[in-house]
Amino acid sequence: MSQKISRAVIPAAGLGTRLLPATKSQPKEMLPIVDRPAIQYVVEEAISSGIEDILIITGRGKRSLEDHFDYSIELESVLAAKDADHVIDALRKIAEGADIFFIRQKEPKGLGHAVNCAHKHIGKEPFAVMLGDDIFLSEPPALQQMIELYQRRPGVIIAIQEVPADQTRLYGIVSGEALTQDVFQVSDLIEKPDADKAPSNLAIVGRYIFPPEIFQALQQTTAGSGGEIQLTDAIRKLRGEVPIYGYRFLGKRYDIGSRLSYLTTNIELALQRPELRDDLLVFLKDLIGEKLPTSLT
Ligand code: G1P
């Protein structure tokens, strides 16, 4: 029998080296996408997927993450004096959607090690893992789609997406057999293979659902790609014990892990905001010297 998924783990302990110097003294998960930190999109997706309990795995220098999901009494008193109660309500909402807990990964030993830090908190329940630098926008939310699949097919569920051959070295890659148009039975997984070693171009992207057996597999996993304990290697150990499904979610994924993708994500998501769209379009077209459509002049 499958169980309800009410808990999510968000690993946010990475050093964000690809976005230095912006991430020198600020977690990459706190970098703004339009007007809110990246991690807030992930937390909002979790809450709208029915998650009630979120554990964020942090590391050194990540205190601002905790402050963001807390009340800010000093800020609220300034806003109250300005009669900005609606702003206070909006800020409080950030802190109230779910129970949010924090734990530190004491050493940077990789994603698998970070997820294993959640063991005591999660116990023996199935749970979701959501990577903080992947933003998914869709209706229904990507995680909700995966939870629905888990109810029909309990096991490990991994969000997957096709990537160009020259990008397999940036992702975990799965191979297997298509069961339906969207669901794959995964038979093998490999972390960050070069194009000539990749068994397919189906990449693992930042959403997973795990049964509690993953913790045992993580404890037995030794350092792999990049000298780190890899989540992909632990999932590989569960083959034959638990069914592993790859799920091609409906919707769009925005990766904020590199300079270019961080910038394009900001532009694309700003264009989706009705209050910003028209003025931003005018600016962009002006910048590249394109003639404006008459509706916007
Ligand atoms: C991690 C995982 C990898 C996955 C990727 C998705 O890698 O180890 O399997 O494909 O996230 O973004 P990272 O990007 O943290 O190096």
Q: CATH first level: which class? A: Alpha Beta
CATH architecture: Alpha-Beta Complex
How many helices in DSSP terms? Answer: 11
> Gap between N and C termini, in Å?
60 Å
The CATH superfamily appears as Spore Coat Polysaccharide Biosynthesis Protein SpsA, Chain A
CATH topology: Spore Coat Polysaccharide Biosynthesis Protein SpsA, Chain A
On the 0-100 scale, what is the average pLDDT? 91
Share of helix among residues?
25-40%
| Strand count | 13
Give the overall silhouette: globular
Beta-strand residue percentage: 15-25%
What is the N-to-C succession of helices and strands? Answer: EEEHEHHHEHHEEHEEEEHHEEHH
Query: Rounded to an integer, what's the Rg over CA atoms?
Result: 20 Å
Uncertain stretches of 5 or more adjacent residues = none
Number of domains: 1
Question: Class by helix and strand content?
Answer: alpha/beta
Q: Report the major sheet.
A: 5 strands, mixed, barrel
Strand order, sheet with most strands: 8-11-9-10-12
Bound molecules: 1-O-phosphono-alpha-D-glucopyranose
Molecular structure report:
By secondary structure, the chain is an alpha/beta fold. The protein has one domain: Alpha-Beta Complex (Spore Coat Polysaccharide Biosynthesis Protein SpsA, Chain A), CATH 3.90.550.10. It contains eleven helices and 13 strands. A five-stranded mixed barrel has the order 8-11-9-10-12. The chain has a two-stranded antiparallel sheet with strand order 2-3. The protein has a two-stranded antiparallel sheet with strand order 7-13. A hairpin with a 2-residue loop joins strand 2 and strand 3. Helix 8 crosses helix 9. The termini are far apart. The mean pLDDT is 91.
